[in-house]
Each structure stands twice: as structure tokens, then as C-alpha cells.
Amino acid sequence: MRIGDAKQSYAADEALWTSTTQQVWFGLLLLSLLLFPFFASPYLLYLACLVGIAVISATGLNILTGFTGLISLGQAGFMGVGGYTVAWLSLHTSLPFPIALLAAGLLSAAIGMVIGLPSLRIKGLYLAIATLAASVFLHFVFVEWASVTGGMAGLSLRSAQLFGLTFHNDFRMYFMIMPLAVLMLLAARNIFRTRIGRAFIAIRDRDISAEILGIPLLRYKLLSFALSSFYAGVAGGLFAYFYRVVTPESFPLSMSIFYLAAIIVGGMGSILGGVLGAIFMTLVPEGLKLLTTAITPIYPQAPVFMSPLLGVVFGVLIVGFLIFEPNGLAEVWRRIRRFFHLWPFRT
Amino acid sequence: MLERIHKQGRRLVTAAGLALAVAIGGTAAAQGESKEPIVFGGSIPLTGVFAFAGIHIHAGLSDYVDWINSQGGINGRPVQYVMEDTGYLVDRSVATYKKLSGRHRICCYYGDSTGFMQAIAADLNNAKNMIMSGASFATALTRVDKHPFQFIPGPSYSQMFAIILEYIAAEANKEGKKATVAFVYSDTEFGRDPIESSRAYARNLGIDVVEEIMTKPGSVDVSAEVIKLRRKRPDYVIFHGYVLSPINEFMVQMRQMGLNTKFMGTFWTMDRLIIDKMGKDADGFMGVMPYNYFGEDEDGPMYRVMHEQARKSDPNQAYRPTPYVQGWFNAMVWTEVVKRTLDAGKPLTGENLKEALDSIKDWDTGGIIGVPVTVKDNSFPVGRIYRVNAAAGRFEPVSDWIHLD
Amino acid sequence: MDWLFFAEVSLAGLATGGLYALIALGFVIIYKATRVINFAIGEIMMFAAYLFLSFAGGMQLPPLIALPLAVLGGTILGGVVEKVMIRPMLGESPISVVMVTIGLASILVGMAEIIWTADPQLLPEFLPRDPVFLGEIYLAPKIAYGFLIGATVLVLYLLYFRFSRGGVALRATASDQAAAYSMGINVRRVFNLAWVFGSLAASLAGILVSATGGLSPQSGAIGLSVLVIVIVGGLDSILGALIAGLFVGWLETVAGAFFGGEYRMLATFSVLALILIIRPYGLFGTHEIERL
Do C213 and B246 touch (CB under 8 A)? Predict the structure, then answer.
């Protein structure tokens, strides 16, 4: 049992880790992430890479939607910008991947800012629709600007390069994706210990009040868009390196909705929530399939009936979490932790 | 170096798993040593937008595997078919591929979409451990340099268009005039696939492409497009990138206007689905099909075997749709390729299988396809033109087999 | 310029626009009364169309009975959804409520796949097949009659909201919820009523749209084009929905006919972007003044 949560300075209140125990656990987590690929099957390795990419993108969307309160249906479009940037750079230059990814993030951020421009005048659902319009425009550009994007057929990339090392399989990709994911998560966590992050939260809670408190709305809203699209761009770039092909159909609207669902299920306005949501939503289809395989020997028709259930389960998860657990998995996680902290006493 | 540790780590896990299995299962594992099965794998869309075909593809593949096993397998080795549902989503298809190929030594694989084939190509070209075909007839796959281990179990979409255009040119020649056609296709990668190459192909044959119409998926109404076509009065309209709708609307509305245009389509629209759904409106619809239809009076040993096996697996289904035949033919090609490789005494690597595939020349398919076929640029560029006879509820051949050179 | 061609295309576009307006109406009614954007409207349409397919195709009922039954089914669906999913969300942030409807959309698509399979379907014919000619101008019969039915229902709705007791209650709730409450209006019932009426319009539109466009579990995607319309017209304006519906239908058809299919969506979304910049609350929407 752990008791006592007295803090004597603001610095202590804002610290990333409040106790050594937490640091130890985090260290263990990092260690297991490092060792994981040496023991995982190709299938698990693939899923881990997919989860890593999803975590980055979901965190980006969480910055915008969860922390700043601006809904975006354009996440897939921003990822597309990142993906195409990386693809183009890989075909026309021999830049090492960190630079290509940085470029992907920056270009995506720039476009994000342009799209965020109307956010001062319109908000809420109107903004959601505006971002939807933006993703339609981006899709049009991906399809029609064939000299750069390869049109409907898309672009095939070469493997990512760094110091003569090529990242041509999942095992190596893992060591590119996972450190980046951890790094970007820590960065995101730290943003919300600074003035900028606090300003985002103030805007979410009541933008007019925030403005009266002296937060320039336009600048911070745009900053939020830029940060969020930067994350999306990097995730899209990784996506491109991972599959080594990008087409306009790689980034459909359903992808944007997937990420919205991920942060809702995980917990909006919580970095941990974005992570949990991304992991959970990526693994749900695979889990369902596992279940199907398990009951197929007993009930041979299972695959035919079980598979459409995925859509139903996806929807029920969204609705269920919103109605019964609006703070998402992050809240569930906190409850579990509290239980063990206070054990053997109950809350 | 890391890779080596990776391999050793995996081996450690495998060894531990094996020890466990031996402990539980006793010595059962020791027996199958000499007859290691040949494994066919598949990312099969049992659900999602493509489920209407996926279910039958699955049936075709599993029926074929059942049959070949009843014949003693391939060169005495049993065949195993492993698959999982993908919902027709690329990331789930890839996940399925990684999962199955991690567990089994797969030599031939069924991919469910063009997106999947493209996403997996880089991996496949690295691993060089299997060959892959599937539901995609995308022209991109005929680029041997980019897709050395993938092939199309029939003509590519461009080749399908070419076959249709050859037919149109021949018909126009008979009447001694110049034919006009219009292309109507959906604004998807699938729909746009053959259009560019077919423009040039038509020009070479002296066919006028008088109109090209791209429709947005999910648009409510096509009457504005029909009005456009009425102005041009093409002899033929070729549809591509659809399964059913909006072909029906185009046909019904254009006939209401009194046009006597002929309507044609490609593989995925050429099933009895269109007759079942459109009824007598479907009459006269034409298109290209690389295989013989199920349940016709064609002949050939393999054609008969397919019917027997289909009846055995499900006696209640009198007709099997074209995706069933497509699945069956995929497995047939795999078997042929594996057999050729084994006969040459070579291991089943991607390169050897590919070499065997390229060696297919004037191959008799036993009645699945009406003429001997030859592999060219990862594809079988062959097909025949059929026309719907709505009263009889079937497709009737109106041309000979056309083999593009 | 071929004026006859232009006129024919325009007319076809306007007829489609009439159907859009009907869907948009369903959208606006729900938003006006309950402040919920219903992303699942396309899926409600799809569901009603499948019901019609079952009644008219599977059970061989005559279309005149099947049509009202299917519309009734879709309407009940809307009412139940309001009770089970939307009411518990009262007072939550709009993002959450919107996401509930997105979740609902996913559930409905999955259910449709389970019940009716994912095969593409065509609805049985229930509209006259003879082409309609207005002078020289050809109009496809399905959309012509679809437009007529849609327009009739639109007029009925407008009359209802203008004159009936329920309509007045609905408008009162829309303009001031608290005041409506204190005047003895049963706001909960009004909320339910709004969903019922909205779903009714959507169901009817769904059947008419599927009669021309075909049907599959993914048909609900049409809801997206309607989002554009309601934003252009203003989320809470019935008049806006009508005008924007006709306009967008016309615009996308003309753009498609003159520039090619890839410009259809681009044209409508360009208009949308323009409207959002000039008039952020749509052509006829109420501009809400925010206070602390």
C-alpha cells in the first residue's frame, strides 16, 4: 500500500514521475519493449509496428481534439501528406529517414496550419466538417497531381536508410518505429507541463475565457493544429516506410474515424488514453479473429457470422465507452492502479 | 548481428514451445516427417464489400484442395490450405499474411486485393519464399520487374479490355464500318486501371472512343451521364470498376431513350448475380470471361472433376459463381507450378516457383479454360466474349477464345 | 454551348437535389430540436431500404404496402435509437454525441451485413418505367417520380411544422429549450418526436435513393454528401436545407457532366469551403452569440 500524496512545490506537482516505483516500472516497460522483437513471432512484430504507428497518430489527434477541443476528421489526410512526402523523398533523394520523417512532419504541420485557419471563426461540428472538406481536397490532390503523387496507382518506396543501414523488414522497422513512438509520447507529455499545453487545455475548457486570460486564440489554435498534424505526418511517413507503398486509397476517411474512436475509447485529453486506445483498437479485430478461430471447431459456420460482428463491436465499443465510461480506458487504468495502491483497503 | 539474436531468440521460443508440445502430445509429431505438407495460404475476404466473391473463392480453393488430397496430394505430399478472413481491409490482409506465414511454410498464397498485393510486394521480393496470386487483375501486377513473385490467374484488366476491343473490331469489320465505344468506369484505382492503355489500344484497332465517363462511387443518379451518352450514341459501352450498380441504371435508361447500344463488362460483373438481380433487363449484356462458366456443357477432365467436387461439398448448390471457378483455377496453377518445381528436383523457393510459372506454355487446363494457355508477363492473357440470355438465365458464348499475343 | 444539354443535365441535377433536400430535412429536424448532428442518417436510410427489400422482394408484398411498412421500420429505429443511445448523452459535449452516432453507423452497417449479407442488391421496381419528357427534355423516370414523392413529403412536413401542435412545440423547443419547458412543453417527447420525424424523412429518401443507386451495406456513405448540404444551408434552417439541397444536387451533376466525375465532390466541397469562410453558420443558419 502506498499513501501520501503531499506535494510541496509546483515543480513536484508537475513532475513526470512522482515516485521511484514509477520510474522503475517505466524502465521495465522500456526494457521489455527493447527485448520484445527478439522473441516475438513475425505476426506479433507486425502488430507491434502497426500499434506504434497508431499510437503516434492517435496522440497527435489527442493533442488537437482531446486537449484543445477541436474536432478533426482530417487525420487520415494529414497522414497522407506525411506518407507522400516520405515516398517522394525516398524516390528522388537519398536522405536518411530521420530527415525525411522530419520533412514529412513539417510539411504536414504547415498544411495543418492552413486548414486550421478557419478554426477561429468556426468551431465544434462546423470545424469537423471543414476538416472533412480539407481531407477531400487532399484526396483530390493525391489522385490528380500525378506527376508527384503517381496518381491512382500511388508510389512505391525504397526502404528507409540510415548510415548505410536499410530498414527492409519488420524487425528493423520496429527499431525505427518504437523509439520514435516513445520519444514522441514523452514530448507530448512534456508539452502539457508547459505554458503551451496549459493554454490548449484552457481553450478546450472555454475559449472565450481563455482569450480574456490573455491567450491569443488564433496562435494557439494554429499551434495545436500544427503539432497535431506534425504527429500525423510522422505517423504517415512511418506508414509509408512500413508498407513501402502509398496510394490515395491508403488513407480513407474511415481511418480518421478510427483514430477518433481510438482516443474516445482510450480517453480524450490523456496521453495515456491515446496510447491505450490505439493499442486496444488495433488489437480488437485480431482478438475477435482469435475468438473466431477458437470456436470454429465447435461451430464451423463461425467465420461467416463472426466477421461482420467486427463492425458491430467497433460501434458498441464507441457508444458503450461514451455512455458508461466517458473518460475511457485511461480511467479504467487509473482505477485499477488505485485499487493496488490502496490494497488491502478498498476505496 | 541483431538479426542473428532475433533468430536465436525466436529459436529459443520455438524450442520451448516444441518441448512443451512434446511433453503434452507425446511422440505424435515424429510420424509426419517425410511427408511435410505443401501449404497454400490465403487472405480471404469472407466479410466486407468483397464478401460476395470471397465466400465462393474460399469454397473453390478448399474444394480443390480436398480433391487434390483425395488424389494423393502433389507428388505424394499432402496439401494443406490455411486462411483467415480479412474483411477486405489491407492492414488486416497483411496481418493475416504475417500470421500465417509465420506459422506455416507457405509456398503459394491468395491475396484478396490489389492494395494487399502492392503492400506485400516489397516484403515478398525480400523473402523470395513463395508466389502469390489472387483476386486482383490489376495491370500493375504485369510489371515483372516490380512484382516478380506475383501473378494474375487470367488476363489483367487492360488485357480484358483488349480482348473486348478485339471482339468489337472484328464485329465492326464484318459489317464493314467503324465502331464507336464509350468507357464508363468508377473513380477508384480498380476503375481507372485499364483506361489509359485501352485508349491507345482502341486507336490502333481503328475504334473511336467517343466518350469517357468516370462516376463517383456512391453517387445517387447517373441520368446526367446517360444524357451525355445519348448525344454520342456509341455502338458499345464498356463498364469497368463496378459489380452491379450503376450498370443497371445505364442500361435501363439508355434503352428507354431508344438507343441500341451494346453493353459490356469485365470479370467481376460477369457473374449470374447480374442476371439474378436485373432479371430480363440484363438480356444482351456482354463481357469477357477467362474461364468456362460452371454448369455448362463444356467438356474436359478437370471441368468434370470440379463439378463432382462441388456437388460433393455442397449438393444443394446447383450453380457455382465465377469466383468459385477463379479460386479453383488459382489452386490449379499453384499445383502445376509446385509439381513442375518438385519434378525438377528443386526446393520450393519463390524463384524456383516463378521459373516453373514462366515455363507454362500451351498448358491444357482440362476444360477450365477452353484453349491451351501460355503465361506472359505474370498473366494468362486469354478470354472469351459471352452474352446474357436472360430467358435461359445464363451466359452464352458469342466468340471464340481470344488469346492475346 | 448546347442549351438543351445544359437544361437536361440541370433538370436531372435538380431532381437529385430534391432527394438531397429530403435527406437534409431529416438531418435538420433532428439538429434543430436536439442539437445533435446525426452522422448515422445515411445508415438509417440504408436500413430502411433493406427493410423495403425484405418486404417487397423477400415477402412479395405489393410495393404500396411494403413502402409504408419499411418507412415505419426506419422511423421506429430512429425513435428507439433516441431513447437508448442519445438520451443518456444529454448534456455531454457535442463531440461525444456525434461520436455516438458514428458508433451507431458502424453498428448498423455490421447488422445489415449479418442480416442481409454484403451482396450488392437492387430494389424491386415500384415506380413507373416510361420515360418522362418535358417538351424536348428527357428526365429519367425514377428520379422524376422520386422527386415528386420527395417534394410532396417536404410540403407536408412544412405544413405540419407551421400549423400543428407538435410542430409548434418542436419549433418552440428549438428556439428556447428552457422557456419551452416552463411553458409546459414536454421537451423529452419533442426530442423523441424530432428523431422520429427525422428518421421518417431519411427512411423514405433512403428507399428512393436506393431505387436508382442500388443497395449495399456501404450505401450509407451518401450521408456524407448531405453533411455538405446542411452546412451550406445552415444546420438549423429547414429553408436552408431545401435550397442548399437543390443547389448542391444541381452543382455536382453539372460539374460532373461538364468536367468529369472527379470534379463532382471537389465542386461541392469548394462551395462548402467558401461558405465556411464567408458565412461560417451557413446561408440561413442562426449565428449564435456566445456569452460567458
Answer: yes
